[in-house]
Specification:
Layout: H1 2-22, H2 30-44, H3 57-76, H4 79-95, H5 100-122
Helix pairs in contact: 1-2, 1-3, 1-4, 2-3
Length: 124
Amino acid sequence: MMARLKSWAQQVKRDVSALYLAARDPRVPWYAKVMAALIAAYALSPIDLIPDFIPVLGYLDDLILIPLGVLVTVRMVPPAVMADLRRQAELRLRERPSSPAGAVFVILVWILAIAGMVWFIFSR
């Protein structure tokens, strides 16, 4: 059972990576690109709809929303294109690229969110 669960989690991870690629691929319809970008951004973002520190509910969005969003979005992408994107995603996951620009972007988002909250609280 654990092996099946681990395999499923790896498939979801691969498909999230493939959807990131789909959002930038010219062979993908515009509506699928929008959904792919939203799902990939949500899955890769450290900010969740329901924070993970909330018992049980915190992980439900990760266990239900992301796989459901991936499933729906994958069906929007043409099958031949999705197969190609999955192969590309497999290669990228094996290479484990790091993105300093991505790290800087996430840190800036957090800084802006915290600054906005502080400004909102103290401006009253």
